[in-house]
Amino acid sequence: MTAASRSPKDFFRPLALGAPAPLREIPARPSRAIHFFDPSNPKMAAKIPDMVGTVDVLLGNLEDAVKADNKEAARNGLVEIAQGTDFGPTQLWTRINALDSPWVLDDLTTLVPAIGDKLDVIMVPKVQGAEDIHYVDRLLAQLEAKAGLDKPILVHAILETARGVANVEEICGASPRMQGLSLGPADLAADRRMKTTRVGGGHPGYLVREDPPRVGGVANLEASRATYQQDLWHYTIARMVDACAMHGIYAYYGPFGDISDTTACEDQFRNAFLLGCVGTWSLHPKQIAIANKVFSPSVEDVAHARRVVAAMGDGTGAVMLDGKMEDDASLKQCLVMVELAEQLAAVDPELKKQYDAIGADSDEQEA
Ligand code: GLV
Ligand code: MG
């Protein structure tokens, strides 16, 4: 802590008189798919009430992908949709415009009084450092106090600038409002001067090639050799996951722009899931199904995790299961899986049926 920092004792104090007290823990609410919609598009907006209950998070997007001429219509459209819809178990998020844009002040001063009681999370794009979070934190506290809200609105930052990546830990720890981070591969690629032109996903040029075969000790450089595409986003996602875990908040993949390539989309989402992310964005209804599948532990994994939990008794020592050693640390991994399955089963009746069909001492093996 530097001499100028706030005392840790003050970290959970409201930043404005009358603002709701910050949460001490960020609730682990299912958020496998954050489905983006443009509230200025009447066709899209009309579908939102029917999507309640079919997706974990609905996000009214005000930033990129909304034309400058439609910014006001998007903001007002979101207010109208939120006021007229009962979201039940589905969370309502929004992505506001960038902090240096001409629209963001009106975004916040309109949305918080009008629909602050319905908004769970505000996604802030192009975050560069803790100072951006501090700005939003104080402004939200003032607006919440003025609107008489009794529950704080949480903040989610998009990691999409090189400086943001360099400051990722301080961004996650900048406010008790911080709920999580998403990868913003399109803006991040531009900011880093990466030589890609895509929204998320891999690139065929980013690869490793196997060594040439050797004949009589001499490398045959003419022989054909297998290549393996590498993941451009591995480093950033891994950093993001560690920063989020260290601050008790959640990491998400982001947009996958090639809507037609559902296979590569599923692969990217699964890499993120395996590395520790809890969800991703959906830019098209068909990506919701992919996200829900990938970010829900498989029945086989849950069956295995429950077997380990049952076999480990008080959780100490080691046991052998199917020829593999299980101990305190593998038990902890299995508990992550079991707890996630329980949270998801609570909101997803179809998944609950599948998980309930597994007995605690099931003999199902890992796939
Ligand atoms: C998302 O906002 C991105 O820039 O990828
Ligand atoms: Mg972006």
Description:
With 367 residues, the protein is α/β, with parallel strands linked by helices. It folds into two domains: 271 residues, TIM Barrel; 67 residues, no CATH class. It is 41% helix and 14% strand. It contains 13 helices and 14 strands. The strands form four sheets. The chain has an eight-stranded parallel beta sheet. It has a two-stranded antiparallel ribbon with strand order 7-10. The protein has a two-stranded antiparallel ribbon with strand order 8-9. α4 links the parallel β4 and β5. α11 packs across α12. The N and C termini lie far apart (47 Å). The C terminus is likely disordered. It binds glyoxylic acid and magnesium ion (MG). The site of glyoxylic acid (GLV) has 11 residues, from α7. Magnesium ion binds next to α7. InterPro entries: Aldolase/citrate-lyase_domain (IPR005000), Citrate_lyase_beta/mcl1/mcl2 (IPR011206), Pyrv/PenolPyrv_kinase-like_dom (IPR015813), Pyrv_kinase-like_dom_sf (IPR040442). Keywords: Lyase, Magnesium, Metal-binding. This is CoA ester lyase.
* CATH H-level superfamily of the largest domain: Phosphoenolpyruvate-binding domains
Ligands in the structure?
Answer: glyoxylic acid, magnesium ion
CATH class of the largest domain, anyone?
Alpha Beta
Tally of DSSP helical segments: 13
- The level of helicity is 40-55%
| Mass-distribution shape | globular
Count of individual domains: 2
Would you count the extended β strands for me? 14
Named CATH architecture of the largest domain? Alpha-Beta Barrel
Q: Describe the main β-sheet briefly.
A: 8 strands, parallel
Compressed to H and E, one letter per element, the order equals EHEHEHEHEHHEHEEEEHEHEHHEEHH
Identify the strand order in the major beta sheet: 11-6-5-4-3-2-1-12
Return residue spans where pLDDT drops below 50 for at least 5 consecutive residues.
363-367
Keywords: Lyase, Magnesium, Metal-binding
Protein name: CoA ester lyase
GO molecular function: lyase activity
Organism: Nocardioides abyssi
